[in-house]
């Protein structure tokens, strides 16, 4: 099995009218730009200075090393899909710098090596050495899987062994920013070394009942980071204050340490960290089984999806700590909904799906990919949202690159490896989980399977899948939650189904074509009555896409439109701009302006409304034209 | 004519079931507490130190002297209505300190006298010497009118003469915080010295086209205030930054200096300052006539009332500069709507009414008094809102006193002088502008008039007015804008009228009773379509009162209620608490909770609403019981 999921990046080719342009732009624009930034930002120079044994002169964020690792990971996925000598050469050059910067002991973190070597492993809370280790390991595994080479894997193994030596022995503690847990499971899967699994389990189990993070806050003068403006733990303005409650007391919530993972009831704190943690925990459960941890994951997933998630699949309501707040607290304009958190949610949900192929996980991945994630990336591949609000007054725009460049590289590694999320061979059956055109070549429980998929999503619900196998295989086709009707036919013969979940077709396959048709009537959805931000509002969905209104398409200010619960919403053709997205048009009303001359308030009985249309475009496509207000949730009349 | 309006404080006795308890609490609780604070806060000690020629040791805000002046003004209104030897004695004691602290030159400002005597008149922008002078003059005139004594008037005259010597001669400049303009007109009216009117005109005319304020910002090292933490002009955190635009350039908007007053188009900046300025300008126009200024006032009033005013009469949308923002920008939860600004609006509108008895001014005074102003004062007379939002999540509460104690004393002087606002004798006719029980004894164009009023407002629309006069007098009775029907009868005989404005009854009066009945059907009002914050929302009014919903009275969270445009709203008796206010009950719906188990988003067609009642209390009475959410604007279904 590949290190991450049951299907490897190299087993899938994406050839899809919708997704391929994104993936191509990612490869041609984003990954290239990401590489240039390694030099531009001083990331590579940090490694060079460490190689030369220099002191000081560190550039960038204190976890800047991860920029190199994330680029290697994304580039490796590209190499896994198709060799590219130029790219391979550049990857090797960067790996060479990384490898040479590693200390004899296996330690590798250029910030501490250059700035405060005496303080390594003292500030687990903020200083992110273990987070860097996680990204190093992920990059190394991806590179090894793509190329078969061990150049970076050896570095990762040495660092992981060093971490294994230190933790649980010299130090007991867990990272303030998770990520190493899932990375260690990947490392275990390519090395078969049980100790990496043990180490992942150690970090998962210790979280929430050690007092290391609290101790660091109380002993800020003894720990690393204080001399580094951006990363200083001491000042109340620094990250450390995020670990404190209103009374200045330590609470672990920010880093999911409010309770041991197996006792946690709700998704809390920084949402990217939460997703990385729970992805790692899911990996652990997959490897070792642990009913208690599994039950905790169920509770956490249920809490997230039933009480703390935007309709776009986005997560994280508050800017302050980039994370979750309270049940049903889902403000639209001030939403955080970080692009990286959407990526993390896809990571977690795919792992959950591999553990138990519940279509709900695949439905959520689809919702997140097309909406909460995709909005994070501009249609030119050059600009990104860190934050993805569901309403805007027109002042929120994508930026080229961030000082803390986490979202663009995370988007890069997801685009580059998107094929993995389309299929699964969990439990010895094949799952067609996402309808993305292309091909799959894999083995299912020893049986070779070749599959070709054509998909008209997200604009039309027509999908055709041709399957070939050298033995009988059960293939499961997902009926998306959004399908307003669904037909499934194998070789022209309808397959009966109950309209939801997976349709299982077990048989010999010899190029049979499976044709799936999913109804895509636009639908108005409401949010739970406890969601104050969406009270009296509706969102419009069509197929997997959440739609939004933008000022540029609508004559009146957006707040003036209101939509009936039973309003007709029409697919109104392709937009001239926005790569020809299907636009929607909803019957709406706006206030009549008669009688308002000289009046600010009037008896409501004297006011009237008049008919209008509300024009809608896919949420992911917003802020790609003239800037202006945007809203996902529209008033109901 | 009295110094402020055509009817003096001493000519009216308020004896009203609604207002008298407020006025009594104001006299017994607020004014007493305000006096204690003069010692507590160091205000009197500042005067004593100045008398003793000491240096330093100044306590409180740099304009702390005004606390003494405002107390004297409020106390003087009490003395005007009824002698109170104890109060008179304490007023005399405070006046004695003020008088002895005055310098030979007439200069009086204990901050500058104690802290930086060399820097007087250098920082007109922030340091408020002219603002202090304004309050001194107002107090002195009120005291003189109440007692006939000149003890404080002489001080005010000496300071005004000093200001007159300095300004326009040694210095050209206008105050950053207005107030002296209207005060100088009051001083003119009791002294008949034309130079005070000239000085008021000077300040009004210079505003907006001198560069003094800009010069101060550019020369912060040469001006006063920099050494005083709270008042420092230099730091960006200080008040000075409020005069800068986003690019750091000086803009006069904050202090209504964006353009000469006669060219101004919209109410801008700090709303209390704006009201004080426009009140002073109105006084000037009344004295001298000035068509251009008059036209400017009309434009400004129209802009405010048609585009920049809350339904409560509150003004000022933004906390940052305590003031006006853009047309139709009227956020509810983050409203500023300072209590002092409501008081200032009453000051301005009463002056406009005296200039031209348009019922719209009296209507707005009534709306402001019962809503935007009254909410600022707790029903115990001991706690105050500085800020009056129209929606709250339950975290906004009245406080006992403020470091910057501007609102409580402003409320105090308004309550203490409320009678002045009920009547006017402008243009030689009598206007019954506000329906507040009590009596009036005045002369109208030489004719003595005695009037007794009984009023059931705001709970019922029954009013009876008995009039006696020693000659024929035209008496005008206002039909309030909110009256859903109205009858006016003199001695039992109906008077015909067109249902709005003033009903004019010119005749001999010999104790005739005028009975007025105003319909008080609850009414749902909507805001102009351009007001985003109120889109799809209604407010409920009954008579002069705006109502609100409080969490304590309603089972569901407030955001779940929705009201039909034609919903029935019932007066539902008197509340057990809140001094027996009339509560309202509106037909409403709330979302059915069925079907939401485990769902965060659902097709709107599957959701249902069920009937409920929304309970409402007068807005002014909110936050006087168990704390919780509050909303003035309710969703429409």
Low-confidence stretches of chain A: 228-238
Overall spatial form of chain A = globular
Rg of chain A, Å, rounded: 25 Å
Fraction of helical residues of chain A: 25-40%
Structure classification of chain A? alpha+beta
Largest interface: A-B, 42 and 42 residues
Q: Helical segment tally of chain A?
A: 15
Mean pLDDT of chain A: 94
Biggest beta-sheet profile of chain A: 10 strands, mixed
Strand content of chain A: 15-25%
End-to-end gap of chain A: 53 Å
Q: Give the quaternary arrangement of the chains.
A: homodimer
How many β strands of chain A by DSSP? 22
Tell me the number of structural domains of chain A.
3
Describe the structure.
- Two copies of one chain form a homodimer.
- Chain A is of the alpha+beta class and 637 residues long.
- Chain A has three domains: 9-273 and 378-421, no CATH class; 424-518, Immunoglobulin-like; 524-636, no CATH class.
- The first copy, chain A, is built from 15 helices and 22 strands.
- Chain A has helices at 19-40, 43-51, 65-81, 85-101, 110-114, 129-147, 151-166, 180-191, 194-206, 212-218, 271-288, 291-307, 339-355, 359-373, 407-416, and strands at 12-14, 391-392, 423-424, 430-432, 438-444, 447-455, 462-469, 473-479, 486-490, 493-495, 501-507, 510-518, 523-527, 537-542, 545-550, 562-563, 569-574, 582-591, 601-603, 609-618, 630-631, 633-636.
- In chain A, the strands form three sheets. In chain A, strands 2, 13, 14, 15, 16, 17, 18, 20, 21 and 22 form a ten-stranded mixed sheet that branches. Chain A has a seven-stranded antiparallel sheet with strand order 1-5-6-7-12-9-10, with no helix packed on it.
- In chain A, helix 8 runs antiparallel to helix 9 and helix 8 (180-191) packs parallel to helix 11 (271-288).
- The longest helix of chain A is centred in the first third of the chain and has 22 residues, at 19-40.
- Chain A is globular, with a radius of gyration of 25 Å.
- Residues 228-238 of chain A have low confidence and may be disordered.
- At the A-B interface, helix 12, strand 13 and strand 19 of A face helix 12, strand 13 and strand 19 of B.
């Amino acid at each position: 099995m590949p290190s991450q999921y049951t299907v490897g990046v190299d087993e899938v080719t994406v050839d899809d009218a919708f997704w391929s342009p994104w993936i191509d732009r990612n490869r041609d624009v984003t990954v290239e730009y990401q590489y240039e930034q390694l030099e531009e930002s001083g990331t590579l120079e940090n490694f060079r200075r460490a190689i030369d044994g220099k002191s000081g002169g560190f550039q960038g964020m204190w976890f800047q090393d991860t920029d190199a690792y994330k680029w290697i990971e994304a580039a490796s996925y590209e190499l896994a899909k198709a060799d590219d000598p130029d790219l391979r050469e550049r990857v090797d050059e960067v790996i060479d710098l990384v490898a040479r910067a590693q200390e004899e002991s296996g330690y590798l973190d250029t910030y501490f090596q250059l700035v405060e070597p005496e303080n390594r492993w003292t500030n687990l809370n903020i200083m992110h050495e273990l987070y860097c280790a996680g990204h190093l390991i992920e990059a190394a595994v991806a590179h090894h899987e793509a190329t078969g080479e061990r150049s970076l894997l050896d570095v990762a193994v040495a660092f992981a062994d060093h971490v294994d030596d230190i933790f649980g022995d010299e130090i007991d503690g867990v990272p303030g920013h998770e990520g190493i847990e899932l990375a260690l499971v990947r490392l275990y899967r390519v090395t078969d070394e049980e100790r990496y699994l043990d180490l992942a389990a150690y970090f998962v189990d210790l979280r929430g009942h050690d007092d290391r993070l609290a101790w660091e806050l109380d002993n800020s003068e003894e720990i690393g980071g204080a001399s580094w403006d951006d990363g200083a733990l001491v000042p109340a303005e620094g990250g450390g204050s995020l670990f404190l409650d209103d009374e200045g007391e330590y609470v672990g919530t920010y880093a999911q340490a409010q309770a041991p993972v197996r006792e946690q009831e709700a998704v809390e704190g920084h949402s990217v960290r939460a997703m990385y943690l729970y992805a790692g925990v899911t990996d652990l459960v997959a490897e070792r089984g642990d009913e208690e941890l599994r039950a905790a994951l169920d509770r956490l997933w249920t809490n997230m999806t039933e009480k703390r998630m935007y309709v776009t699949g986005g997560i994280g309501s508050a800017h302050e700590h980039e994370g979750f707040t309270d049940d049903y607290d889902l403000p639209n304009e001030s939403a955080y909904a970080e692009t990286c958190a959407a990526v993390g949610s896809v990571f977690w949900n795919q792992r959950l799906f591999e553990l138990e192929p519940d279509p709900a996980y695949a439905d959520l991945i689809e919702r997140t990919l097309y909406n909460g994630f995709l909005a994070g990336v501009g249609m030119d591949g050059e600009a990104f949202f860190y934050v993805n609000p569901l309403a805007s007054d027109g002042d929120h725009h994508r930026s080229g690159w961030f000082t803390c460049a986490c979202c663009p590289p995370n988007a890069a590694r997801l685009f580059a490896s998107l094929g993995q999320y389309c299929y699964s061979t969990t439990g010895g059956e094949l799952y067609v989980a996402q309808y993305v055109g292309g091909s799959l070549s894999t083995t299912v429980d020893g049986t070779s399977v070749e599959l070709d998929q054509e998909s008209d999503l997200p604009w039309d619900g027509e999908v055709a899948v041709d399957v070939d196998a050298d033995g009988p295989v059960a293939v499961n086709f997902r009926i998306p939650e959004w399908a307003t009707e669904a037909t499934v036919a194998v070789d022209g013969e309808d397959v009966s189904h109950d309209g939801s979940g997976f349709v299982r077709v077990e048989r010999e396959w010899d190029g049979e074509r499976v044709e799936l048709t999913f109804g895509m009537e636009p639908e108005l959805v409401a949010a739970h009555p406890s969601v104050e931000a969406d009270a009296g509002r509706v969102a419009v969905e069509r197929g997997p896409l959440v739609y939004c209104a933008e000022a540029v398409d609508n004559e009146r200010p957006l707040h003036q439109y209101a939509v009936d619960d039973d309003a007709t919403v029409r697919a109104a053709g392709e937009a001239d701009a926005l790569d020809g997205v299907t636009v929607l048009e909803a019957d709406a009303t706006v206030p009549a302006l008669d009688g308002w001359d000289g009046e600010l308030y009037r008896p409501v009985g004297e006011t009237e409304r008049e008919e209008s249309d509300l024009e809608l475009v896919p949420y992911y496509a917003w802020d790609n034209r003239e800037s202006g207000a945007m809203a996902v949730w529209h008033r109901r009349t």
